[in-house]
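Same chain as my last thread, 331 residues:
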Amino acid sequence: MSQPAPSVSVCVPPAVSAGLTPAFEQQLRDVLRSEVEFIELIGEDLVGAGGKRIRPQVTLLAAEALGAVPPDTAAVKLAVCIELLHSASLLHDDLIDDADTRRGQEAAFRRYGNVVSVMSGDFMLSRLLVLLSDLPGCARLTRAFGEVASMVCEGEVLQFQVAAYGNPSYEQYERIIYGKTAALLELAAAAPALLLNAAPEQEAALRQYGRELGMAFQLRDDLLDLLGREEELGKPVGSDLREGKATWPVLRLLDSPAGEEVRTILMRRAAPSGDLVRIQTLAAEHHAEADTWAEIARRLNLARQALDALPGGSARQELEDLLDRLIPDLH
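reply #2:
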């Protein structure tokens, strides 16, 4: 049975970056320094804008749960590498998506141009490689980062491919959100196990935690894109639908008695006024919203269960608390 859907309008998560150490912020500033002013400015925007910093926080908490004593220098560098990979992907994504803003500020490519934005993202990737080269287990970590970087690219391209061909499916959608979001969170959680040469069962547990957290997070993000409020999201509602992207709640509607109507709206990319409101109405009528929240809750429970394989302590508890703070209304 589907559980009642929480209020979408209150599900924008609070900031969770308070647990990051000053050592992390300083290392991030240091690694982004450049003698080229525009690159320096984009780096300053990244540090100043902050954001939730979920991925590096997961990395530092996972390292602590495995026995690293904060602020462990290697763990901090690893967390910075995670943030650099994420930030580089955002610079590229904003350009691809023709986004106006990022974290409440004008998107970098609109301020500095396409070339500067893309090359600044590449600069971050190069700095990431330099940092990785100094870490224990460099070869394993570099391979893991390379594999995830390719998955992120494949996830983004697959999303456009499915929309272009008009052949959405649950399998394709899960591949997309794993590549776009969950693969990097999985790496954020599991990379400390590679760094610290942890037991295989602990690495597997952290991979499950990061993967399921990432899947839940993207499911929530996609649901908010469809049913949230623009003033709270800071971006237009319904952008996925207007790009022909069939997210989880839309897939649920395609399987409902309203499937043909929904497919028509999806194929014309919700161009007529009223299409978005119609999909929102159908999502409530056919329980697509509630079903999506139920899938999010299932993923979060799998992430929570994975933590049982880790030693008890404050870091493990904070990893569990993070699940509640990210999506507070599911409990």
